């Protein structure tokens, strides 16, 4: 969800140092990026990194010559005009990770998930408001995370038993859903 929220910002769309804001071109089966200044970032090498039993593959792209570029300060990470005059743009891209990220973003943008997100936010707000006001549950009696978890679970179990008793006594009817109505 964090990536989804970042994508909505203007800073994300205007960051010229990131590959997703560069043009991608293919020439003779070779993919390369074109930066904001019109320079080519060609494929240099492929790097692999193994961590915790997982292998990550990075495609490394770099510009041959960034000298004289007026966008160096915005494009290069931690650029110092005095020390880094000969520094060129290099970026690493994990294509498998980016593919999964795009798939996740597509799922988050789907209509089904948007409706679930709306429903979840409405339902949880109601429950927490009800717990605070009607059951007068304002603070936890314990401090450790384990004890707080147990206390909240006991409260949730009691709430569910109360709801079940109301259902058995026919004070609460089974929810059939709003299949015919379309929300937002």
Automatic annotation (TrEMBL):
Pfam family, any one: DDE_Tnp_1_6
Boundaries of every Transposase DDE domain copy: 34-165
Organism: Dorea formicigenerans
The protein, known as: Transposase DDE domain-containing protein
Domain of life: Bacteria
PANTHER family: TRANSPOSASE, TRANSPOSASE DDE DOMAIN-CONTAINING PROTEIN
InterPro entries reported in the protein's UniProt record: Tnp_DDE_dom
């Amino acid at each position: 969800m964090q990536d989804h929220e970042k994508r909505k910002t203007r800073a994300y769309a205007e960051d010229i140092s990131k590959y997703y804001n560069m043009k991608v071109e293919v020439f003779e089966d070779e993919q390369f990026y074109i930066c904001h200044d019109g320079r080519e970032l060609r494929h240099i090498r492929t790097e692999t990194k193994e961590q915790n039993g997982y292998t990550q593959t990075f495609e490394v792209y770099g510009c041959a010559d960034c000298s004289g570029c007026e966008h160096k300060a915005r494009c290069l990470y931690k650029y110092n005009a005095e020390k880094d005059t000969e520094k060129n743009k290099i970026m690493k891209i994990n294509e498998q990770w980016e593919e999964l990220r795009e798939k996740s973003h597509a799922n988050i943008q789907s209509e089904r998930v948007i409706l679930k997100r709306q429903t979840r936010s409405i339902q949880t707000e109601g429950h927490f408001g009800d717990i605070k006001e009607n059951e007068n549950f304002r603070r936890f009696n314990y401090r450790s995370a384990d004890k707080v978890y147990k206390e909240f679970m006991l409260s949730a179990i009691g709430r569910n038993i109360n709801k079940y008793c109301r259902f058995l006594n026919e004070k609460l009817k089974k929810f059939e859903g709003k299949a015919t109505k379309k929300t937002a």
